[in-house]
Amino acid sequence: MSSEPQLSGRRIQVIGVTGAGKSTFARRLGQELSIPVCELDSLFHESRAGGALPEDDARRSVQALVESNDEWILDGNHWVQLKDVSYNKATDIIWIDTPLPLTLWRVITRTIWEVLTIPGVLQRELSGNSLIAMSLRVRAKKHANWSKRVTTDSRWKRLSGWYGRDRFLARVRDMLRAS
């Protein structure tokens, strides 16, 4: 029997630090399971495409998805703001816990790409609101908090290491083939 975590249901919240690969994992899992995926950062934060929604509108968008679907994947760390909307209804909270070197590589390459392609990002990075610095600041705190949750809430699953996401997705594919 595998010691890797298994899915308990199909109402899934995917979390992880900046650069963990939450969005990629959530999209791939959604494709495997054929269920809708909502990228919370696109609702709650300014994106490449434009501004964020006001928080009440973002909550309503998530609530509409959750109430109109028995199965869903939410990708992002907004579970505290959405505790009453989605977190308490989630069957699985999947923490993508990638190694620091991989996370840093992703954040640095993303930042370089954004500096080269998005107006204003260089000023953000130089102003003290650096994505790289922020990701390092919050990593240890989130890691400690989430490590406790994994041991106290059976819905929490931790996918760690360089290939934790890939191993989990392979098991999901195997499970679907067997059913």
Automatic annotation (TrEMBL):
Protein's UniProt keywords contain Transcription: no
MF terms in GO: kinase activity
Keywords of the record: Kinase, Transferase
Domain of life (superkingdom): Eukaryota
SUPFAM superfamilies from the UniProt entry: P-loop containing nucleoside triphosphate hydrolases (SSF52540)
InterPro entries assigned to the protein according to its UniProt record, in alphabetical order: Cytidylate_Kinase-2, P-loop_NTPase
Protein name: Shikimate kinase
